[in-house]
Design brief:
The complex is a heterodimer. Chain A is mainly alpha-helical. Chain A is built from three helices and no strands. By secondary structure, chain B is mainly α. In chain B, strands 1-2 form a two-stranded antiparallel sheet. Classes of the chains: A mainly alpha, B mainly alpha.
Chain lengths: 114, 503
């Protein structure tokens, strides 16, 4: 039983790590702010999966409830951050017609240090 | 004092609960925004005063709701936490009082219902709650939640005017800050996986210097550095801090970066003193040095006052990170480490007051002449002598001239660097002081020069408003003149590693 749990934990942990990697790639490679926000959520999900897997790892009688409580808190935090970011992205798109930062628009305003 | 001593319990909890309640109340207060804000500020100032008197008798630690760690979440206060809570209370109090005419004008409720006025008070009180939660937290996950609340409130304050540039600045800030949060959270997950607890006091007892712990510390530090705007993660700070309204900029630049720096100090000096190694402190010190040089160089090139002040924040944050090489970095006990550790804290405190004062002054200049290009400031000292004097006093602190708080901080750090045979860091500090003088003399010289022919007459600014930056600037000088009291206070409950250095 414990061995089975350990292999499942490893599987979940590896999936979490893969999600984090995919998310970081998306976060860095895309300029569109909504895509970056989705990537942020993918990284977050990967971290939560990894966190959940640690709760499964070394407890003989079922899963450790502390990571679950912390994950739920983390999801709420990530959700509010996402909601705020979406509101600001829509506002930026309404005002400037582009859901990208000024320095990342193709042929747009010169970016970087002012 | 025992871990469940009833005396401090209610005060620690109230310091976090009261600003949260004030934030919610100011959402619905409508035309009563002014009395609600005034009462809440008075309450917070007295609560912070009570905390200081309690901690003066010894450090506090409570298990919230009677659940002790590792299941429960502890709140703790030592000299360092209480010092930060007190400085936050004074800076927030003065800045928010000075924001009353702008965001909650007296008179009928109609004029007070502007968009920015409606959003400012809840966001500022949420930010205050988050800062206090960070300074009083004894648990790494609780710190994550408080850090997120701080970030979301700060992003809201940046975007408060709703213009395309400020929204873009807020989003750029959000990208850095959210990435930083995730890195911090991943580090916390590593620590939980390794030790099964996130309570800082418990972790300090069982943490070892193995690979997972070092990786966790590195991830958390990188995330915190992104939130503190340490070079090379500084790109978001100047547009965000210079685009916000002056009271918001004062809070954002004076206090918000200190919170993530505070967590980094807690992490390395309280939780993982044995895992720092030889390289990490040097890397952080080198990044701090680069921040000092690069931030100062860019501050010299700016033509707008608020951008000069914002780039100066990038530079001043660099000094804070010199704490890592100067107060740590060797396995042997170092007698000078305590001085370096306290010096960095003095720098954090006096910079908080001085930078808030500078942004408030810049806001008043902006109000008077209609823009903040430094060429337009010629002769402003004749019209607004109090504000110009406040700006000059705050500049004295940033340059590190005696008898300011910035001088005491640099003196302590310099002494530590010579005593420890690490003269290279003192070069960075002296160069930084000279460069601060260069970039601050540009606006100061114009302000105190004679006005040119045909210069427009500045709009009048009330004396009462001009008192706020002056009070903050005087505070930053007083920290230096009366440095003995705060110095001893900071040593209450100080971790041993702050005295003997990291390993």
């Amino acid at each position: 039983m414990i061995e089975l749990l350990a292999t499942r934990a490893a599987l979940f942990g590896l999936c979490g790590a893969a999600l984090i990697g995919i998310g970081i790639y998306g976060f860095v490679a895309h300029a569109h702010l909504l895509r970056r926000l989705v990537a942020f959520n993918v990284i977050g999900s990967g971290i939560f999966l990894l966190f959940g897997a640690t709760g499964l790892r070394r407890v003989a009688f079922g899963a450790d409830p502390v990571p679950q409580a912390l994950i739920i808190t983390g999801i709420v935090v990530a959700f509010s951050a996402t909601a705020l970011a979406v509101a600001m992205i829509t506002r930026l798109a309404m005002l400037s017609g582009e859901a990208r930062l000024p320095e990342e628009r193709p042929g747009g305003a010169p970016g970087g240090e002012r | 004092m025992g871990p469940l001593s009833g005396q401090g319990t209610i005060w620690l909890a109230l310091l976090i609960a009261a600003p949260l309640a004030a934030a919610l109340l100011s959402v619905v207060s409508g035309r009563y925004a002014r009395p609600v804000a005034l009462a809440s500020i008075a309450l917070m100032l007295s609560l912070s005063g009570i905390l200081v008197t309690l901690v003066a008798q010894g450090p506090l630690r409570i298990a919230v709701g009677g659940w002790s760690a590792p299941l429960g979440i502890a709140l703790a206060a030592d000299g360092l936490s209480a010092g930060f809570v007190a400085v936050t209370a004074v800076v927030m109090g003065i800045v928010m009082l000075s924001a009353l005419p702008q965001f909650a004008p007296r008179g009928d409720g109609e004029t007070g219902e502007s968009r920015a006025g409606y959003a400012f008070w809840p966001l500022a009180f949420f930010l205050w709650a988050a800062l206090n939660a960070i300074f009083l937290s004894g648990d790494l996950f609780n710190l994550y939640v408080a850090l997120e609340l701080l970030t979301l409130a700060a992003i809201g304050l940046v975007a408060i005017e709703g213009k395309a540039e400020t929204i873009a600045a807020a989003l750029r800030y959000a990208l850095f800050a959210l990435f930083g949060s995730l890195a911090y959270l991943l580090g916390a997950v590593f620590l939980y996986a390794a030790y099964g607890t996130l309570d800082m006091a418990l972790l300090a007892e069982i943490a070892e210097a193995d690979g997972a712990t070092i990786a966790a510390g590195a991830l958390m530090t990188a995330g915190l550095a992104a939130k503190t705007a340490l070079f090379p993660f500084h790109a978001w700070l100047p547009p965000a801090h210079s685009g916000a309204p002056a009271p918001a900029s004062a809070i954002l630049s004076g206090l918000v970066p200190k919170a993530s720096f505070y967590i980094a100090v807690r992490l390395w000096f309280d939780v993982l003193p044995g895992a720092a190694g030889e390289i990490m402190p040097v890397v952080l010190g080198a990044l701090g040095t680069l921040a000092i040089v690069y931030g100062s160089l860019l501050a010299m090139r700016q033509e707008r006052l608020k951008l000069i002040v914002a780039y100066s924040t990038v530079a001043q944050i660099g000094y804070l990170f010199l704490i890592f090489p100067l107060a740590g970095g060797s396995a042997d006990p170092q007698p000078w480490a305590a001085g370096a550790w306290t010096g960095a804290m003095f720098h954090a405190f006096s910079h908080a007051a001085a930078k808030a004062s500078m942004f408030l002054s810049a806001g008043l200049f902006l109000h008077a002449v209609g823009h903040d290009r430094i060429d337009g400031l010629k002769g402003i000292a004749r019209h607004m002598p109090m504000t110009a004097f406040a700006f000059a006093l705050a500049s004295v602190t940033l340059m590190g001239l005696p008898p300011s708080g910035g001088f005491t901080a640099k003196y302590l750090l310099l002494t530590a660097s010579f005593a420890g045979g690490q003269e290279i860091w003192s070069a960075a500090m002296i160069l930084g002081g000279l460069m601060a003088a260069l970039y601050l003399f540009r606006p100061l010289g114009r302000a105190f020069s004679r006005a040119g022919e045909g210069a427009a007459r500045p709009a009048p600014v009330s004396r009462l408003l001009q008192l706020a930056p002056l009070a903050l600037a005087c505070l930053s000088i007083l920290i230096g003149i009366a440095s003995a009291g705060p110095y001893d206070f900071l040593q209450i409950g100080r971790p041993v590693s702050a005295e003997e250095g990291l390993e």
